[in-house]
Write the C-alpha cells for this entry.
Amino acid sequence: MYEEIEIVTCTEYFEYINKLDTQHKFLYRGQERDWPLEAKIFRLPLKNEFIFSEKYIISEFKKRVQSPKYKEKIQLNSFCELDILSMANHYGLPTRLLDWTESSTYALWFCVKKIQEIFDEYGIIWVLQYHESDVISNLMNYNPYENIEVLKIFNPENYNTDRITAQKGIFTLPIYSKDKQQFIPLNAYTFSKSLIKIKIPSSSFCDIREELTSRSIDEEILFPDIEGLCRCIEMKNIMNEQELKNHTLRRQ
C-alpha cells in the first residue's frame, strides 16, 4: 500500500519533497480531483471495447493529421509509435499514455490551478519512484500496444513540443493484469509501494496558487504559446476563491 499524507501549504509541500531520498528518481502528477492513476482513454465511456476503440482512434489520427486541410502537416514516417501517441496526446486525443512531470513544482500547479467553488474536495499529487531500467531505451522498436505487466516510462525525444519541454513532460504506459484480464490503474498495482499520494484540500488551492504565482509559476510558463498567454491573462482578471466568496456575501 502506498503512503498517503495531507499537506495544506506550499512550505509544507516543498519541505516534504526535499526530504525524499535523493538517491532515487521521481515523477510527479498533479490532479485537481482524486482520480485513479489511469490515462484519459480508460476514463471515457467508449462506444466499443477498448481494443477496437483505441485502434480506430489512432488509425484515424494517423490518416487525417497529414491531410492538406491542416496547416501543420506532419510526416509520420519519421516518428515511432510512441512519438505518434505522444503527438496525439498533446493535441487532446485520448490515448493510453498517462502524463507526468519531472518537476514537483509544476505538479503542484496542475493540482491547484483551477479556481474552486466547492471546498469539500481534495486535489492530489502522485509521486512515483522509478528506476532507470523502467525507461524505454529502444524507442523505434518498441510496441506500445503490448499488454505489459511492469512499469514502463516513455521520455519523448523525437516529438518533443514546446509544451512538453516546458512542463518537463514524461509518460507512463498502462499495466495489464493477466489475472483480471484488464488494464488497471497504477495505484492499484503491486508496485504501489513506490507511490506517494499527497492530498491538498481544495480550501488551500487559492493560497498555494498565489504563492506559486509569486514564484513566477503560471499558465504562460507551462503553456508557452498564445493559448497559455490568454489563460494567464484570464486568471489575473477573474476573482479567486476568497474574492468570489466576499463578492457573494456583499450581494446578500
In short: The mean pLDDT is 88. The radius of gyration is 19 Å. Strands lie at 3-6, 25-31, 98-101, 122-130, 153-154, 169-172, 175-177, 182-184, 195-201. The first strand starts at residue 3 and ends at 6.
